[in-house]
Amino acid sequence: MTTLEFSYSINEHSKSLKPFALRLTKDVDDANDLLQETMLKAYTNRDKFSDGTNLRAWLYTIMKNTFFTRYQRMVRRATFVDSTDNLHYINSGDVSIENRAHSKFAMDDINYCINHLNADYRTPFMMYFKGFKYQEIADDLNLPIGTVKNRIHLARKILKDNLKIYKTN
């Protein structure tokens, strides 16, 4: 195949490569760049193409490999490697470590509020919290079921008011 025939053939296949480039990059400008780079690589490596083989598949392979190489290069560039002697990241503000201090403070406040509830409210509330049914609580405490429901409701309301600082929107 002559250089002119090869150029004409890859130009004909470029129309079918554009949607594939768009699927890979998900951006029109990046797809155009990928297509252009694929065509350039195909043309400069035309001596590696064997006549009688599928030119379209060869072009798709070049495009796919070019995309993966670009992606890997981009990931490597975005990776920060600290080469200082102490082997710690310098100014890595995008990394935060969760130490659970906030949740410990919240749990301490919750336990404090529960412990300071009136015993008439705390006992049925804690039983309900542990998984007892209303009827089981009523039977265990020798109270009417309506009273149990009311006391649990009031305990929850008191806790909600006392712990409103932790309310999320």
Chain-wise SSE layout:
Blueprint: H1 3-25, H2 28-44, H3 55-78, H4 101-115, H5 119-129, H6 134-141, H7 145-162
Helix pairs in contact: 1-2, 1-3, 2-3, 5-7, 6-7
GO molecular function, one term: DNA binding
InterPro entries: RNA_pol_sigma-70-like (IPR039425), RNA_pol_sigma-70_dom (IPR014284), RNA_pol_sigma70_r2 (IPR007627), RNA_pol_sigma70_r4_t2 (IPR013249), RNA_pol_sigma_r2 (IPR013325), RNA_pol_sigma_r3/r4-like (IPR013324), WH-like_DNA-bd_sf (IPR036388)
Domain RNA polymerase sigma factor 70 region 4 type: 110-158
Quick take:
Keywords: Sigma factor, Transcription, Transcription regulation. Helix content is 69%, strand content 0%.
Can you put this structure into words, describing what you see?
This protein has 169 residues and is mostly helical. It has 2 domains: 3-78, RNA polymerase sigma factor, region 2, helix turn helix motif (Rna Polymerase Sigma Factor, Chain: A); 101-166, Orthogonal Bundle (Arc Repressor Mutant, subunit A). It is built from 7 helices and no strands. The chain has helices at residues 3-25, 28-44, 55-78, 101-115, 119-129, 134-141, 145-162. Helix 1 (3-25) runs antiparallel to helix 2. It is rod-shaped, with a radius of gyration of 34 Å. It starts with a helix and ends in a 7-residue tail after the last helix.
What is the H/E string?
HHHHHHH
Main CATH class of the largest domain: Mainly Alpha
Mean pLDDT: 82
Task: Spell out the CATH superfamily of the largest domain.
Answer: RNA polymerase sigma factor, region 2, helix turn helix motif
